[in-house]
Amino acid sequence: MKFRYSLLISAVLAGSLVFDTFSAPLPYTRRTRAYSGWDGAVRGDSTSIGMAGGGNAVPESIATAETQPASFALSMESLEAQINRVRIVDRYANPQGDVSRETQGGIGLGLPPWGFAFTFYNPMTQVGRYSVPGSTVEHDVKVSLKEYHFGVSRILVRDRLSVGVSAEILNARYEFGAGKHSRSKLMPRLGVLYNIGDRVVFSASFRPGTNLNSDLSVGTEFLPGFVQPMYVPAQLAAGFGYLPNRYFRMGFNLYVPFAHGESSLLADESVSVGEKTTFHPRFGMNYILLEYQHLKIELDGGAYYEASRYSNRSGRLHKTGAIDINPAFFNTSMGFDIANDYKNYIFGVGIDIVRTLRFFDIIPKHTVSPTNQTAPNPMRPSAEGMPEGLTSREPKTESGPDLEDVGQIIKDIPKRTLEKLSGETPTSSKPSKKKPKKKPRKRAANSDRNDGDEASR
Fold this sequence. Notes:
Blueprint: E1 8-16, E2 24-25, E3 35-36, H1 46-50, H2 71-74, E4 79-89, E5 99-111, E6 114-131, E7 138-156, E8 161-176, E9 179-197, E10 200-207, E11 210-212, E12 230-232, E13 235-245, E14 248-257, E15 280-292, E16 295-306, E17 316-327, E18 330-339, E19 342-352, H3 353-359, E20 373-374, H4 388-391, H5 403-421, H6 453-456
């Protein structure tokens, strides 16, 4: 798991293996069918893509809050921010092999029993350079759906259940040359995470479907009827995650977009999209290979099946993987998502602001020690360094700061910065008075223990 209260600012360039692209005439002179606002490829950062979307059941990064609003209260205790710039080539959605360029990211804060998140991303983008039959004029054409999610979650039921809800702005965008048009709608999403026990977590979320109606009179002189309605399917996700310790986790997630009204591809109105309910199983694992004071390496691997929502295509199996190498306060990542007519390679470089401040003694060192291990046993149960929402009733020797501590640390930053610049030794931030932790209930002989974590320190 990531250290609590870590802030990541990164710019990720996700470059696909680029196919040859060329302009082509659209096979119609008037648009008459709607568009579909969803496709089955996994979106997110290197961890989310490396885990093939299976991390929705064991949320780890801000990207998982896009589809699971309950994530930050129970399974994450961090302040995280990301901005990712991605380039994706998908011949299913864009038959010519044109590159879709998207910006996604967000910011999230987990302070049990509460969690908050804001995210934005593109679940669907169709692009191309087209001319209309009978005309030699070429235009850059783009139809996309941009979503903005505002989520809040809270832990309930004896620290076992996290319930989250998000208000989501769906913004359908239509671009034809210099002309632009958009239509927005507000939709709710409900998510739950339940700690079954023995570090097994159940995850589920649901958002109803909708139709972003458009003004059919809006178009261009070259393509009448271009601005058609966009159907966004109802979406159900459910799965299980297993987190025996802070350095290994795995998750399985079944994503189900339901059927919606009649729609078709931008490139070809004869290709129907989303007219049947499909099932997309996703499985992934994350493992911290080594973790020391100024170096951490994480590995991700997974696979998912993208059931085709296109009438002229069959389903495809995606194989995914990623590696994150984080020396000092830097974050570097490489990942891939490979399938038939879909090759996406991701390279990222970022700076962890909180680790930077710790490195220069602007804020205190983290209260949770690194494991100081290479290749730790991934199946050894341990509560050390785990989110409080998952382990509040388990004994552990270290825990992260609470809300009062974070407030005091932030308040002391200007003073400690001046002391550092003047060559003085920064004064330590005074921790708040914490209430004594509840005594853990007696557990069975075979329950999770902290074997090895204390010995390794």
